[in-house]
Amino acid sequence: MKSHRNIPFGYMMRNGEIVLHPEESAAVREIFDMYLREMSLKSIAAAMTVPYNTDKPLWNKNMVSRILENMHYTGADSYPAIIEPEMFRTANEIKQRKAAACVCTDEKKKYLHSLVSGGSSLTESEVEGLLVSVINKLIAKPELAAPDKPQEYAPTAEIMEMEQRLAVMMQDAAADFDEITKLIADIASTKYEACPYDNRDRTMKMFELLTTRGPMTELDIDLAKQVVKAVHINKGIATVELVNGKILKGA
Fold it and tell me: What pTM value is reported for the model?
């Protein structure tokens, strides 16, 4: 028969009262001590020799995590204290910091993957190094972000198709006025997106950002998102496309 815990690890019942379990309470203290020494949950689990349950002699990181989050060990709810409240607070501040770092790392991985096109064989660290190198060049010399030549407006195939559709509707006396109005608005919006002046606005915004920054030692994702649109790999050669359409060669 499996043994299920009715009270937290570290305690036991004696004469109807919750008291400290000698071996388990010592293990709880040891878990907090190890975590404050920056040991990982997995490493702590591997170091445990006192069974968590009789049917679960081996520990895992989730069990360790539950120990670290249990306020009963500070003496809450009339449980005998095993650790000091300050130790509990410090351990959980470390836990929150590590959790935030994991989220940040995941965000960085997703961002780096989303940038690359062309069946890249580059690793995440190589893409990150490429971005740091290119952005640092731009910080040192912002004029590199300027478009190579003035851009002229040219209607896209989508815009031409929409304008043809509008011309047909305008010749139809039975055409719905609201549909015509909506199509005109859609055409205006699509033209604006294709307008080169929008790219000039983006260029000026980049200049403002880059001239206020110092060189990066590690990737600033927020800055990168405002400067870099994509990383292209063609025949093993990496180029970086800026948000204004400017293409720069990798390092």
Answer: 0.46
